[in-house]
Amino acid sequence: MRLFRTALALLSACAIIAPTAAPALADDGDVAWTVRTGSGSFGDDRSSFTYSINPGARLDDGIVVANRGKTPLTLGVYASDGYTTDTGRLDLLAKDKKSVGIGAWVHAARGTVTINPGATAKVPFAVSVPSNAPPGDYVGGILTSLTQEGAAEGINVDRRLGIRVKLRVSGALKPNLTVEDLRMDYAGTFNPFGSGDATISYTIHNTGNAVLSARQTTSVAGPFGWASADAGELAPPPELLPGESWRMSVPVRGVAPAFRLAATTVLMPLLTDASGATTSLAPVSVTADAWALPWTQLALLVALIAIVVGWFVLIRRRKTRRRDREDARVREAVEAALRNAG
To answer: Collapsing DSSP states into helix, strand and coil, what is residue 121?
Structure first.
């Protein structure tokens, strides 16, 4: 059995190398190395590899690897497609998984590199995009990898350190986010004068061909917009690669049980260009309805109606009994008068 462990392996949308472009470091005792972008026509001190390229074109760049350890180091070098994990971080496919984008188009000049202690090596790589490549964004990374025997027998540990690669293939860019499967669950309260809580759940789906993030708001309102409540400031979803989805569950506090509620979610998609500038796209708004019956208030109302009806029945019965007693008294008096007259 093999166990793969990622060591600082492209775990966030801002790449392994920090925004300051300091080298990323993998350190495990006597074995330590760093990676950084190479200098060249694409710039110096870059935090990641970002390119705009035409279908069928090729470009060349390089990754710089430095051995910070005390022994010679042999590392594997390869590229892999990226994906968003369940925790919202960017990770890379393992080497034995099939890539169809970055991992298939980025090729290192050599599959391994050996570096002496204290030395540095630049590994060139080429980006070759097929002529039939669909336009849009592709995200992955170029990795250095060291496989070591683990502490347990039969278990290998794959330590990976790499740099994010984002490729935008020219053509019609169609950024698009959708909100799917919007639903609301309402939990009331036994306090007849209190309000309940709603949970709004939905899926954000990147159905376009560009990497997108978003700002979002969620609110709940009763009929005609009465008794509205909102979820407050929400954390943004992670950057979603084309085709990816992200499930949201948003609590909204202080929601009045207004019989029929409308939950509304608004997304403001955010598109980042090659220079790092962010553009807001047209908002996406979706609404779903749900029942929120005020059971406690209804129970109180039923009890009140029962009390009122019971009071009226009691009053009517009392009046009937008094009338019956009066009628009986009158009949007795008449009968007595008739007897005396006879």
So the answer is: strand
Q: Do both 312 and 193 map to the same domain?
A: no
- Backbone conformation region of residue 305, classed left if phi is above 0, alpha if psi is from -120 to 50, else beta: alpha
- Under 8 Å between Cβ of 164 and 82: yes
Which CATH number fits the domain that encloses residue 257? 2.60.40.10
Token pair for 78 = 């390869």
Within this chain, do residues 215 and 73 fall inside the same structural domain, yes or no?
A: no
Structure tokens given for 299: 């129970």
Q: pLDDT, tens digit, for every residue of 50-84?
A: 999 999 999 999 999 999 988 999 999 999 999 99
CA 16 to chain centre: 21
**Nearest partner of 34 among 8, 61, 5, judged by Cα:** 8
State pTM to two decimals.
0.77
DSSP 55: T
Determine the residue type at 214: A
Looking at the 3D structure of the chain, how many domains does it have? 3
Domain ranges, residue 35? 3-169
Output the CA–CA distances (angstroms, integers) from residue 23 to 37, 42, 266, in the order listed. 8, 17, 39
Mark whether 51 and 138 lie in a shared domain: yes
- Region 310-330: what's the mean pLDDT? 80
- Same domain, residue pair 26 and 154: yes
Do 20 and 156 lie in a common domain?
Answer: yes
Q: Are strands 31-37 and 24-28 parallel, antiparallel or unpaired?
A: antiparallel
Residue listed under structure tokens 């959708």: 178
Angle at 35 between CA 34 and CA 36, to 5 degrees: 130
